[in-house]
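Input record (one chain):
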Amino acid sequence: MRILNRWNLLAAALAAGAFLTGCQGGIPMISRVKEIEGYPINQAMIVAATEKNRYEDAYTSQLWQVTLDEEGTTVQTFFLEQVEQFLRELKTVSLLAEEQGVQLNGQEQSLVSQLSEEYFGGLTAEDIAYMGVSEEDVEALYSDYCLANKAVTELTKDTDLEVSDSEAKVIDLQQIEVWDQGTADSVLAMVQEEGADFARIAGEYSVNPEIDRQLARGEEDAAFEEAAFALQTGEISGVIQAGDAFYIVKCTNDYNEEATRERKGELELLKKERAFRTVYDEFAKDHAVSFGEDFWDGVDFSGGGCTTTNFFELYREYFPE
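The corresponding structure, as predicted from the sequence alone:
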């Protein structure tokens, strides 16, 4: 359950610890960290309630008391830690934006106001009571979220994000996976016979039910990838040993154009994230956003009739990626 990935905030999960600097000669160490207060609980509840309800829709409300480790950490505790981490990063990036002179322009501010009005207008009385929010709270959070995303774009605009077709290339395969060399050799002989039905043989002999698949670079063992990407459409590999398994693959499409285009976008986003992380890391080590230890005390996970789930979905309608 990686909340930050879903929300597409590019900043990495960073610990806001105390970073100290000092000089030689016995001079006491002095903290350079700026302590910054996080969001108020009512604004934090917008995020918490949105994702709480979304997870309950998928997994029911019974998931919150499930324990995750021997220490008895519950899903609820872990979930709130992730929400808090997201809010910490959001505040940090918005402060970084201000320091770097990144601001919302008039059109963006107008859209944020319209967005906030629509979101708040769609809340039920139960939603508002549970979160304890006003339209001003909604607009403040949307403003920071929009500013943070703009900062990521602005501070990485000069970064080379180009990804080649070769680097992003995705191919379509059918694969047979077996556990010993002897079986692999026998199956290879079968699929090499004239008129052999590779998919039928795979269904009969493969220990992995996943027969049809796509493959991008960096996803599999090097030997597997080297053999697979050397194939042209319709060609069948020899026996490939990767780890403890043996494979035979047939290339059904040596260049999936649509999947390659999507993969290229993913790799460009990853490059963008890495570039931004460098800037973020330097800033975050001296700016510690904190929430009190009892910040979430009193939060009632029964929900009180709150059903809102569209805070981030609505944002993407106004600010498409």
